[in-house]
Amino acid sequence: MARRTGLTRQEIQSTALAVGSDLIAKHGLSKFSMRQVAKEIGYTVGTLYNVFKNQDDFLLQINALTLNDLQCFIQRGLKPNLRGKNILLNIANSYYVFAKENYARWRTLFEYALAEETTLPKWYTDKIASLMNMAEQALSDMNLSSTQIQRTSRALWASVHGICALALADKLALTRSDPAEKLIRELIDKYFIGLTLEGK
Amino acid sequence: MARRTGLTRQEIQSTALAVGSDLIAKHGLSKFSMRQVAKEIGYTVGTLYNVFKNQDDFLLQINALTLNDLQCFIQRGLKPNLRGKNILLNIANSYYVFAKENYARWRTLFEYALAEETTLPKWYTDKIASLMNMAEQALSDMNLSSTQIQRTSRALWASVHGICALALADKLALTRSDPAEKLIRELIDKYFIGLTLEGK
DNA sequence: TTAATTTATTGAACACTGTTCAATTTACTC
DNA sequence: GAGTAAATTGAACAGTGTTCAATAAATTAA
User: What's the whole-model pTM score?
Assistant: First the structure.
């Protein structure tokens, strides 16, 4: 068989990514395979390799979708009329909720992109920078130097990430009275007290 | 062939783990395979499965060794005569250095232990608790409630972990003037200012 | 010393995996 | 309708984790 009328190259690509995303969400990255994706979209594995360079490429594009979803999720959760610290708290909470509700996909973001030393394409690192930029924006009207804004947004973003990672992996022995959300709030609260009081 | 005189079950186990640890350190977890380990220790894969339950079991024990190494490394780096915050800074720095110098093994700690939903054995979670306990000890003479000690040690531990993870994966766009060490110091400094000033 | 038993070790087998590529079939162009 | 270009296949290759009957050596019993 060959060239069926029906799906265009683009359509195959997007349905494959959608299906792959679903498979990861349902069964985790460890069960994921190119052959499974091929089977689910009704094509052969050969076709998949005609549209994607290899598995790395495929997963990179899956991650791109996840990053988009994450950014949208944070955007949508952004309550108006918040300023400075409260915007950061809002973002951090959304980050945690997204990571929790999309755990397998969120993990794939780091399990994979971090794995190989092949340098990531610019459009991908731009997506990450764009995320980080949300935090920087939140700090922009707070009378801080630009280096301090960068440092704060990076330190807090990475910290919140760490709390999410260990908490969701059940590595923090959290209690019902001390959930991850509380740790995140604590951290940001204390950090900001230090940040505002130090300069005086 | 069968039963050679020579290595005991225990010896096979420990040399296999040492070799496996080395392979991960050299080529990363993605290139690791049971067959490769078998070849390097001069046995067949079947023998490996006679000593280890499966690959999960093998990697869990590799991780146990890594956790031991990590704990020893932090212990040895502990400068005397430090108190409170400075002990935490000391621990956090050692954690970063260890993660950096043993990147592949350190990553395996989280890439694997977090992967499956099979509950970890108690002796393993105890090891983790023992690590966390170092941070709690550092806070013990600081006039904090026990819940505050727990909260602080967890929040900071996870935060430092997050900074290490993203920094070492080159996901923070760090500059020469703003390295990971500085972010860690900043975070702990600010947090502690908030911690001590808040109660007053 | 020999026979019986236990135990370590092997290596083939199974069902997977990512990846490649010649062959084939279809659609499009002239 | 012939010729070209492109899409699709499926077999092949080298690798993976895992199992298990067969085997060979060490240990024990007679």
Answer: 0.94
